[in-house]
Design goal:
This is GAG-pre-integrase domain-containing protein. The protein has one domain (about 1-40). Helix content is about 30%, strand content about 0%. It is built from 2 helices and no strands. It has helices spanning about 10-15, 35-40. It is rod-shaped.
Amino acid sequence: HWCFGHIGVKGLQQLQHKGLVDGLIMLPSLNIDCTTCIEAKQSRMPFPTTSEV
């Protein structure tokens, strides 16, 4: 997650608690999945070694 420069949930909570951000609405659930990180970690099927025409 940090490789993409994304802050974690605990970091967001600290920013909100210290009053460093305005208008931040925290979700009650701590199980937040970052779709960018999930998509970046997905594997791909290999390209075919021969072309089929």
